[in-house]
Design goal:
Layout lengths: L9 H10 L3 H28 L11 H14 L3 H31 L1 H15 L3 H12 L3 H25 L3 H9 L4 H36 L7 H10 L3 H29 L1 H7 L2
Helix pairs in contact: 3-11, 4-5, 4-7, 4-9, 4-10, 5-7, 6-7, 7-9, 8-9, 9-11, 10-11
Length: about 280
Amino acid sequence: MAITLDEPTDVEDRDDDLDTPGPWLAKYGRFLGGAIGLAGFLLVWWLVVATGYVSDMYLATPQDTFRAFVDGLLDGTLSSEIWPSVQRALIGFLIALAAGISLGIVVGSFTVFQTLAEPVLVFFRNLSLLALLPVFVVFLGIGEESKIAIVVWACFWPIFVNAVGAVGGVERQLLNSARALGAGRWYTFVHVILPAAIPAIFPGIRLASANAFTALVAAELVGGAQGIGIYINNAALRYQTPQMYAGILALGLIGVLVNAVMTGIEWRVTRWQRGLTNR
């Protein structure tokens, strides 16, 4: 019997089967790939130190780092430094969140404000935080106020810029439809502009949550009594290499946890949008 172009051949069927991953691999392939990548990273890390390519005075092995991390949590030398850093980062992030969204909505709602604010945004969003550390120290000293202010500064700009773009980028068709149906300015803002802008604001919020701890470590290196940045710096000065990398490990794990929390919040807040786009 002749084979038409519309009928797949056995060879084509086999190729499709090869290209399509199995149900188990489709479900767990991402986690399996991540585990393999992490294992490869740890192996290379261990080999670099074990072969003497880098001295253990400068780079601790993964097992020594993990041991110092666990010991630091158990004896309190590391665990006591975590909460002060988390508290500073949380306070600074919440202040930046409130200020960034509020000002972003105001500026994004009016074209004239966007025009006036654009050169300021371009300047400050590209200004290095490290260049401003002395300014914060001069005005606020090396106490809690300067550390929180540095976190606020680092978190504010991603939130503010995304909020301005999100509010200003709401489709005019939605606004015109609401006005045509008789919706007032306040109703349109609450029920049309905000829901449409929230999904575009969240990337800035997630970036700000990551910036909070990055900026905090830089701020804690300026001075202070407690904090992960201070713990890392003190360990480096004392040549306690495993403890230094244990502090870095703690900071990285906190970042992973914060990212997971923000992803979960974003997933719940914006799930209505996925419902619309998946139909």
